[in-house]
Design goal:
The structure is a single chain. The protein starts with 6 loop residues before the first strand and ends with a strand. The chain has 3 helices and 12 strands, in the order βββαααβββββββββ. The strands form 3 sheets. Strands 1-2-3-4-5-6-9-12 form an 8-stranded antiparallel barrel. The protein has a two-stranded antiparallel sheet with strand order 7-8. The longest helix is centred in the middle third of the chain and has 8 residues. By secondary structure, it is mainly beta.
Length: 189
């Protein structure tokens, strides 16, 4: 995917358990250049609540430095960064925080094979705004780590799988007459 390339995605939450910090859903990417049909993936997520999950991922080849770098892309995280670097953010009350921080990890392709031209090796750092329902996310792919140091490199091709360090998810809430937030179609960059 190139830095200026974008396509629409539909994200559907299929389960949320705030007590255990778990959520899951599906993501449908439309008009993916390398795919003949929309690409649907199933993902599972972790809600950063300092009870079940912290800001430090501890898996998927993410280091503490990687975590801080990606969380820092969210303006809402910047006020928390010092505490997170000091003690992992354990002293921060996230229950009443205006933003919910999450990680979404795509687990498998639902309707296509792994030869669809996309990779699910990475995961998303995600931030949900409680006030307006917007969701923003930044993708981290351990297979394209070196690309982060070369910003002129727009695409990294590993075999036939397109990897990009530039993936960004921007979802805007719509109100369809229901309580809370609901979502329509979004741009995936």
């Amino acid at each position: 995917m190139q830095k200026d390339e974008a396509w629409k995605v539909n994200v559907r939450l299929q389960g949320v358990d705030m007590q255990s910090g778990y959520l899951c859903g599906s993501m449908e990417a439309l008009n993916v250049p390398a795919a003949e049909t929309p690409v649907v993936t199933f993902w599972e997520g972790e809600i950063v609540d300092n009870r079940n999950y912290s800001f430090y991922t501890g898996q998927w080849d993410a280091t503490k430095e990687t975590d801080v770098k990606h969380w820092s892309k969210f303006a809402s995280f910047l006020e928390l960064r010092e505490e997170v670097q000091k003690d992992g953010g354990k002293s921060i009350d996230l229950v009443n925080h205006p933003y919910i921080f999450m990680r979404w990890k795509e687990k498998f392709f639902v309707n296509v094979g792994t030869d669809c031209g996309l990779t699910i090796a990475g995961f998303y750092y995600v931030c949900f705004s409680r006030s307006d329902g917007s969701v923003n996310g930044f993708y981290y792919d351990p297979n394209s780590r070196y690309a982060a140091y070369n910003y002129d490199l727009l695409n990294v091709v590993l075999g036939n799988v397109l990897c990009s360090p530039y993936q960004k998810l921007e979802l805007k809430a719509t109100n369809e007459g229901r309580a809370g937030h609901s979502f329509a179609t979004y741009q995936f960059q």
